[in-house]
From TrEMBL:
This is Ig-like domain-containing protein. Residues 1-17 form the signal peptide. PANTHER family: MHC CLASS I ANTIGEN TRANSCRIPT VARIANT 1-RELATED, MHC CLASS I-RELATED. Residues 198-286 form the Ig-like domain. Belongs to the MHC class I family. GO terms for biological process: immune response. The chain crosses the membrane at residues 311-334. Keywords: Glycoprotein, Membrane, Signal, Transmembrane, Transmembrane helix. It comes from Denticeps clupeoides. Pfam families: C1-set, MHC_I. The gene is LOC114774184.
Length: 367
């Protein structure tokens, strides 16, 4: 397999003000690249709080607020639970390889599930989604309480799970998951409620490249970045990226503006960054304010060398398939080809029997 086909990035679903989210990302990968065969990452409000992989074989805390509030019984239970899921993932990858007529090569099976709670309205939302080799596989439609096959071969799984599985999973997502979300938010209320303003800079590789407005170091993760021309919102020639995590628990986001020097020197272009930590930040595009990006570094601050190793991409609301965290230290989703299409944010499980909901974590069934 060509290593250049992959990339490490994670992006987290943005919840609105007053909302909280609990998400879990599972990724199984066949042997052939230097990453664990199974990875689990848990996030609360976009912050990683637990982690497990097939090398360490233990669920571990990633933040003090969970470490200080849960004892050995919790960690032992979580470890045993996820070890069972890991075993199931290995079976499922084999099943899917047969189903898709893949006899060799590196392949991935991924699952994302979670719930959200709006503190203001009391509204709750749950989702689960599966992916195979970086593409949507099957998802749960919570409104109809039924599975949706996203590829023809997935009709097999859809029929196997039937109504009982969907009912059980929905019950977990809008019940048990919400209960644990409330508990976790209470544990981490001081950290999760903090507001850190973004640092804004203008970056450009060379005069013919797009100008990048980059906001970084902010928390929480909800931020809006836009470009204006002479005081008017600009939408054409603007590409807004996804929100990505930094290693310290803060976030970053960028918005590219495609404009030639002769045009922006004759007009006033302004990058506007809006974040709940304070008033909007206005950065006017001038020659003095542009920082040149080094040849070996991309706009995310990742060296070119790192881009040559296998990587993962977890999408945002509409994206969501994960693998392992190396560069950004969270989750990875395999991007196998340049034409990769991000998945819709919905729902995932294992492929052959109804899921159970014992304990605090949604259990997996076979494909």
């Amino acid at each position: 397999m060509k290593a250049a086909a992959l990339l490490f990035i994670i992006s987290v679903h943005l919840v609105s003000g007053g909302s909280h989210s609990l998400q879990y990302f599972y990724t199984g990968v066949t042997r052939g690249i230097n990453v664990p065969e199974f990875t689990d990452v848990g996030l609360v409000d976009g912050q990683q709080f637990v982690y497990y992989d097939s090398n360490i074989r233990q669920m571990i805390p990633k933040v003090d607020w969970i470490k200080n509030n849960e004892g050995p019984e919790y960690w032992n239970s979580e470890t045993l639970n996820i070890q069972g899921t890991e075993a199931g993932f290995k079976v499922d990858i084999g099943t899917l390889m047969q189903r898709f007529n893949h006899s060799s090569g590196v392949h991935t099976f991924q699952r994302m599930f979670g719930c959200e709670l709006d503190d203001v309205t009391g509204a709750i939302y749950g989702y689960e989604q599966f992916g195979y080799d970086g593409a949507d596989f099957i998802s749960l439609d919570l409104k109809s309480t039924s599975y949706v096959a996203l590829v023809p071969l997935d009709e097999i799984t859809k029929h196997r799970w039937g109504g009982a599985c969907a009912d059980q999973v929905k019950s977990y997502l809008i019940g048990t998951c919400i209960d644990w979300l409330k508990k976790y938010v209470d544990y981490g209320k001081i950290i999760l409620a903090r507001k850190v303003p973004p640092q804004v800079s203008l970056l450009q590789r060379d005069p013919s490249s797009p100008v990048v407005c980059r906001a970084t170091g902010f928390y929480p993760d909800k931020v809006k970045i836009s470009w204006q021309k002479d005081g008017q919102d600009l939408h054409e020639d603007v590409d807004v990226g996804e929100t990505l995590p930094n290693h310290d628990g803060t976030f970053q986001k960028r918005a590219e503006l495609k404009v030639t020097p002769d045009v922006w020197k004759k007009n006033q272009f302004t990058c506007v960054v809006e974040h709940k930590s304070g008033d909007p930040i206005h950065m006017i595009l001038t020659e003095k304010k542009i920082r040149t990006i080094s040849p070996g570094i991309n706009v995310l601050g990742i060296s070119a060398a790192c881009n040559n190793v296998p990587v993962i991409v977890a999408g945002l609301v509409v994206a969501a398939l994960v693998l392992i965290a190396v560069v950004v230290g969270v989750v990875m989703v395999v991007k196998r080809r340049s034409g990769y299409k991000k998945a819709r944010r919905e729902y995932y499980t294992q492929l052959s029997a109804p899921a159970s909901q014992s304990g605090l974590r949604l259990q997996q069934t076979e494909i």
